[in-house]
Amino acid sequence: MVSGERGSTYLSALEAAEGHFPDQARLVQRLFYVNEAFHSMCEDLAAAAQALAHVEELSDAVREARRLEYAGLVEALLKEMREAMAQSKVVMLRRPPVTGPKSP
Fold first, then answer.
1. How far is residue 69 from each of residues 14, 72, 75, 82, 103, measured CA to CA in Å?
2. What is the pLDDT of residue 90?
3. Long-range contacts of 62-67 (CB under 8 A, 24+ apart)
4. For site-directed labelling of 24, which of 33, 62, 71, 97 has its Cα 20 to 30 A away?
5. Neighbours of 9 (CB within 10 A)
6. In angstroms, rounded to a whole number, what is the distance separating the alpha carbons of residues 47 and 13?
7. pLDDT exceeding 90 applies to what percent of the chain?
């Protein structure tokens, strides 16, 4: 997503993600700032949502095709983001290494 100010780009991309996952806003914020791939998904989501919001401005000939394309992109990004959030909640537990009796 392109914006005149870097801060406003961050804010709108984060707001777009939080808007879709309001009950997980803290997790979205954490991933947004520490996970580059998730951050990129948020930016893509904001751009796709913006394009979908402006689809009515397109000509009749392409409007419905673009609506389906952008809506599909939004849904795919939301699915990918849900998966990333679920993965971030997974805690890997390690067993201590098995050691035999100590040699004298």
1. 22, 5, 10, 20, 67
2. 74
3. none
4. 71
5. 16
6. 8
7. 73
Query: Would the pTM of this model clear 0.70, i.e. be above it?
Result: yes
b/e code 60-70 from CB counts within 10 Å (16+ = b): eeeeeeeeeeb
List phi, psi (to 5°) of 96. -65, 150
Length of the chain in residues, anyone? 104
Close Cβ partners of 35 (under 8 Å, ≥ 6 residues apart): 84, 88
Distance CA 5, CA 34 (A): 21
